Amino acid sequence: MLDAFSRTVVSADAKGAAIGSEDLADLRKYVADANKRIDATLAITQNVSCIAADAVAGMVCENTGLTQPGGHCYPTRRMAACLRDGEIILRYVSYALLAGDPSVLEDRCLNGLKETYLALGVPTSNAIRAVEIMKIATVAIMTETNTGRKMFKGINSGSGAQCQDIASEAASYFDLVIEALR
Asked: Where do the annotations place (2R,3E)-phycocyanobilin 2 binding (predicted)?
């Protein structure tokens, strides 16, 4: 994983060219958004357990057979594994968001994720639904539209509307997870 500055230098070096004005404009935007990135990452990490638990609970509510004997969230150790996996996905989404680069998510989390679930006999449709719920909750936290949940702490720097671009970027990282599971 490279940060925005290293990516720019490596890219320019590979082309054998100097860093261009468009590259510098992108870096200026990255620096301007740095506090929002930090706040967005902090919002995820402060709420990681709630987001993962709500996602797994939502998935189970939509398919109550998951917690019955023979279901994929039965016994409790399987439920704990679902929660753990949700928290891991959130952690890597937060890394990608902070860096402004999905490569750490792709390399460390998504590479072989679907194959692992298939080998364990976990229906990917359930995992996809849990990720969709995590995406919705995370975007709501970042845009401060999570009105029904007092426990969530949103982004501190600016209004929800100002954080829409960061929330959209986070949503795109969840979309990468969903696509990897399809």
From this structure: 77, 82-88
